[in-house]
Every structure is written in C-alpha cells, then in structure tokens.
Amino acid sequence: MDTVKNWIENRQSSGKSCFSFFETLENFSLQNPDSLKRSLTRLVSKHRIYSVWKGFYVIVPVEYQPKGIIPAVYYIDQLMKFLGRDYYISLLNAAEFYGAAHQRPMEFNVMTTPPSLRSTLKKDIKVNFNSKPAILSQYTEQRKTPTSYIRISSPELTATDLVQFEKTIGGLNRASTVLYELVESCNFRKLKADFFDYVSTPVIQRLGYLLDEVIDYKKQADELYSKTIKFGCSFRTTPLKNRKPVAGCAINHKWKVIINEQIEIDEW
C-alpha cells in the first residue's frame, strides 16, 4: 500500500496528473493484480485518486481532496489519449471559454469519433460524448489547463454544434441564448470550403436564420450567407425544429427554413 501510494505521490510531484492501471501493473509487476486493485480502491476511498474510467485514474490535487471530485477539464485530454480518440470540448463547455455561457454548464460535453462512447456519471459529474465521423483540427483551438492542454471547438464550429445538437443542451431557446453572446467571437469570413463540407447544409441554414431573425446579428448572418453562395451550398426547405409538425408554418425564403418553432431568448 505504501509503495503504491509513494509511486503515485512521486508521479504527482513530477507533474503527472493521471495514470492507468496498466502503468501500475508495469511498475509493480511482481505484485498480485488483485492486490494492486485493492490498494487503488483504498486510495480512491481516501480521495487521493479518482477513477474516471475503467482502468484510468486521476491524482486528486490537495484542493480537491475534501470531496474527491475533479473538474473534467483537468483530465479530459489524458483520458481521450488513453482511449485513443480524437476529440474536442464542445457545446456549452466550449462556449464558456469564449465568455458565452451565462451560467456554468451542469454537464461536460465532448465531441469525438465513432464508435460512440457511453456517457459517464461519477460523483455528480456527467460527461456526455457526442460523435461525428471525423474531427477537423483546423476548426479547433488549443487551450492550457492546470494539468495539460485541451482542444475546444472554434467559435464558428461551436455555433453550428449548438444548433445541430440543440436537444443535448436543452433546446433551441437555450442554443439561441448562448449564440447571442458567442456570435461576437465568430468570424464567418474566414471559413473555407471544407467547413461547409464538414457541417451539414440544413444546420447552416438554421444557424443563419437564428442569426438573422432571432438574435438580430444581420452582419454575421450576411457573412455566413455569402460563404454559402461562394461554396455552392444548395438550400432545400428544412424545418427549424426537427421532428416537429410543419403544416401551416411560415417559411423564411432567404434561408429556406420552415419556422415551426417560436424562439424565446432567456433573460440574463
């Protein structure tokens, strides 16, 4: 027990914040694996380490030891490397980095590639995993945390994700509320053709409509629209809200969006 404890403390003092059970086995190859698991379980119970995934542990900093809970941003990069997945922090958690989350998100959202990963709930911290066929690194940004560097979606990609995955964050009302603050960080003029191949055209249409008619950022909406013309995006009539009736609803002819949802931006 003391040997494992000392090994973990030495890792922490050398700036390493995470480790896997396989690394433990490699360093204590003469010990029984079940005995090592029991040692790690005791350290978890004492809030010295935190199991965030089967076989993957985070060393708990002193300031977090009373509760033994660590924000996901501290370990997500190391966890995704452990899982061998490309990723970026997305949705409300990405928006928060741009000052666009007026309240701290209750869940932590990560975008990765298939096959899908199950969401996790550990000590009231829920990590949601959404997936896309690929991750385009040119539309992500690197940010420093106390323990590592992380990847977050660019403001423009965050905006489209908020629309595409609106159900995940509580609906289009909340997406529009966050967009109202996020759009000031967006520069749609710099987008290239690959962005419009990566993001589906209906998502671009819905975003454009929200910018234009709901949050009244017409300059940014026009910049986005001009890019859709330049790169040959073919608009087809699409509902603002998926899986909701459209009969009798008005159509915005610029964006070809069926207005089957009335949007109300939350008060700040």
Q: How big is the Rg?
A: 22 Å
Give the mean pLDDT. Answer: 93
Question: Number of helical segments?
Answer: 11
The description of the largest β-sheet is:
4 strands, mixed
The CATH class of the largest domain is identified as Alpha Beta
Number of strands: 12
What is the count of distinct domains? 2
Strand content: 15-25%
What's the shape? elongated
Question: What CATH architecture of the largest domain do you see?
Answer: 2-Layer Sandwich
What distance lies between the first and last C-alpha atoms, to the nearest angstrom? 51 Å
The largest beta-sheet arranges its strands as: 4-5-7-6
What's the gist of this structure?
The protein is α+β, with helices and mostly antiparallel strands.
Q: How would you describe the overall organization of this protein?
A:
By secondary structure, the protein is α+β, with helices and mostly antiparallel strands. The protein folds into 2 domains: 63 residues, Orthogonal Bundle (Arc Repressor Mutant, subunit A), CATH 1.10.10; 187 residues, Beta Polymerase, domain 2 (2-Layer Sandwich). The chain is 39% helix and 18% strand. It contains 11 helices and 12 strands. The strands form 4 sheets. Strands 4-5-7-6 form a 4-stranded mixed β-sheet. A hairpin with a 2-residue loop joins β2 and β3. It is elongated. The protein starts with a helix and ends in a 10-residue tail after the last strand. The mean pLDDT is 93.
